[in-house]
């Protein structure tokens, strides 16, 4: 094995920045390690699409509890084969191995069975492929075999057909990563559907009953006339986008390569096609949909070409999605499903989801490594909360409205295609302006090259196109605040958090 690796990897070797196998927004200290009791629960089912490569890697690692419950307990193969690396916890060990070039990692994997198991951790090889090949790769069932195939010049006889069969390696950390990649969504995670559903409401009703109170809603029937609903098959998209590359995670890929990847991948965090320039790249895609009537007041449009990124086409396989986040620049958003279905979980601005830790200034958000892990370890806790999340499954032809400031998580239940847009209306204009003028706006503002001056440019453009709008909205906000204060009860006044008094809060 080391000899083959050495000869195969030389053509791809070049100076490479050291990278951890996780992004800095998903640190290791946030990864739960002691919640694997459910792994043996028969209600957890593996996906029928789990690849042979994925199943082979899964055979290498067992949860740590199995070591103590085995009929004939024996020493953990991990401890015997790591040598001086034995004291390192698995998450830190993977961080160390993530600093090695591919050739050294391959050589290390031949040193012992334990190192073979750890060095086979697929996210390590994903980093090599994306760093060195960008989006110009053909996925071969796993990131490890994909890298070897590229390094060997596509010579199949040099590609290991399957992982070695190794028994006796126990690790909660590695097993949970594998389980999250291969487990089906549980029925109880999909059963709760408590979002308000509306069909045929007027724009005035939407503003008064949904947008003003800043509440999520699922809209039915409002995109029935979109050509995309009938036209956007794989074949059609491949035809109109031939030769064009789309943003997929940290790289750019043609759609045919991405579909080949999506058909064969089984990993904890699948790459997600999320492209903000799709309509410029493929004008036909921009002509195949129109903004629903409820969202047509889009005040960021006064900035013209200087407006922040605001619309995206989103394509991904089952299991792909977005972990908990708040939409950029304090905007509201709508998300329309063209193909497939998505599970949504949303929390109001004042309720931080369990397992999510925003920094004090809002510039950083840490959360579990994968969406599936959040469901495994945190979803159940929400059942006892007074303010439980708003949830739904959104299907083709339906639109979810995400109010500004709301936390939301989305996972694709099947291969899905969607269009989403962020926008600013009169109802959230003051929120957006406050956000853009924060002292650390240069860190918070996204989707634009000029983060520092966006506030002033936006104010100037609004005043030029809608004279007096900002002053009028500020006056109305003051009047509403005064009315609320007048109606406040004695206890509300006595428990005002700003006065330093005691206050019940969630």
Structure description:
With about 500 residues, this protein is an alpha+beta fold. It has two domains: about 1-185, no CATH class; about 190-465, Sandwich (Jelly Rolls). About 35% of the residues lie in helices and about 15% in strands. It has helices spanning about 1-10, 50-60, 65-70, 75-80, 90-95, 100-110, 115-120, 120-135, 145-150, 170-180, 185-190, 205-210, 230, 235-240, 255-265, 280, 285, 370-375, 430-435, 440-445, 455-465, 470-485, 490-495; strands at about 195-200, 215-220, 245-250, 250-255, 275, 310-315, 320-325, 330-340, 340-345, 355-360, 365, 390-395, 400, 405-410, 415-425. A hairpin with a 6-residue loop joins strand 10 (about 355-360) and strand 11 (about 365). It is found in: Nucleus.
Overall tally of domains: 2
Characterize the largest beta sheet: strand count, sense, and whether it forms a barrel. Answer: 7 strands, mixed
Strand residues, percent = 5-15%
Question: Averaging pLDDT over every residue, what do you get?
Answer: 84
CATH class of the largest domain: Mainly Beta
Shape: globular
Distance between the termini: 56 Å
Number of strands: 15
Unreliable stretches: 1-40, 493-506
Radius of gyration: 25 Å
CATH architecture level-2 label of the largest domain = Sandwich
CATH 4th-level superfamily of the largest domain: Cupin
* SSE-based structural type: alpha+beta
- Strand arrangement within the widest β-sheet reads 1-2-13-8-15-6-5
CATH fold topology of the largest domain: Jelly Rolls
Total of helices:
23
Q: Helix proportion of residues, in percent?
A: 25-40%
């Amino acid at each position: 094995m080391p000899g083959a690796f050495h000869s195969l990897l030389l053509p791809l070797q070049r100076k490479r920045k050291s990278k951890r196998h996780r992004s800095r927004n998903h640190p290791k200290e946030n990864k739960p390690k002691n919640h694997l009791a459910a792994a043996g629960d028969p209600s957890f089912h593996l996906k029928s699409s789990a690849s042979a490569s994925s199943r082979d890697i899964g055979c290498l690692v067992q949860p740590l509890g199995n070591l103590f419950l085995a009929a004939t307990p024996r020493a953990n193969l991990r401890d015997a084969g790591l040598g001086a690396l034995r004291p390192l916890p698995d998450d830190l060990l993977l961080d160390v191995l993530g600093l090695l070039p591919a050739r050294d990692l391959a050589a290390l994997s031949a040193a012992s069975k334990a190192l073979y198991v750890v060095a086979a951790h697929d996210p390590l090889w994903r980093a090599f492929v994306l760093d060195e090949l960008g989006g110009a790769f053909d996925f071969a069932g796993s990131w490890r075999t994909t890298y070897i195939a590229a390094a060997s010049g596509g010579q199949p006889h040099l590609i290991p057909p399957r992982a070695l069969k190794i028994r006796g390696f126990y690790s909660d950390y590695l097993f949970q990563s594998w389980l999250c990649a291969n487990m089906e969504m549980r029925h109880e995670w999909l059963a709760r559907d408590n979002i308000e559903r509306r069909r045929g409401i007027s724009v005035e009703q939407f503003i008064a009953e949904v947008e003003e109170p800043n509440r999520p809603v699922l809209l039915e029937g409002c995109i029935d006339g979109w050509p995309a609903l009938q036209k956007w098959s794989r074949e059609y998209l491949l035809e109109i986008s031939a030769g064009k590359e789309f943003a997929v995670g940290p790289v750019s890929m043609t759609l045919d390569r991405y579909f080949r990847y999506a058909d064969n991948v089984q990993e904890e965090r699948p790459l997600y096609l999320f492209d903000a320039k799709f309509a410029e790249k493929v004008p036909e895609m921009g002509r195949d949909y129109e903004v629903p009537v409820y969202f047509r007041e889009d005040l960021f449009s006064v900035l013209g070409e200087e407006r922040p990124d605001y619309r995206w086409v989103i394509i991904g396989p089952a299991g792909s999605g977005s972990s908990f986040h708040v939409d950029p620049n304090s905007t509201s958003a709508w998300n329309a499903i063209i193909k497939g279905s998505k599970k949504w979980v949303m929390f109001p601005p004042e309720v931080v989801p369990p397992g999510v830790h925003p920094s004090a200034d809002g510039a950083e958000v840490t959360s579990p490594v994968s969406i599936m892990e959040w469901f495994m370890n945190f979803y159940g806790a929400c059942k006892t909360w007074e303010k439980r999340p708003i949830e739904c499954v959104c299907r083709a032809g339906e639109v979810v409205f995400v109010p500004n400031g709301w936390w939301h998580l989305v996972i694709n239940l099947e291969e899905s295609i969607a269009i989403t847009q962020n926008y600013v209306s009169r109802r959230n204009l003051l929120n957006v302006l406050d956000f853009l003028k924060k002292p650390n706006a240069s860190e918070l503002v996204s989707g634009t090259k000029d983060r520092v001056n966006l506030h002033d440019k936006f104010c100037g453009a609004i005043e030029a196109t809608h004279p007096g709008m900002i002053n009028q909205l500020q006056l109305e906000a003051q009047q509403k605040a005064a009315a609320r204060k007048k109606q406040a009860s004695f206890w509300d006044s006595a428990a005002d958090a700003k006065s330093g008094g005691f206050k019940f809060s969630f």
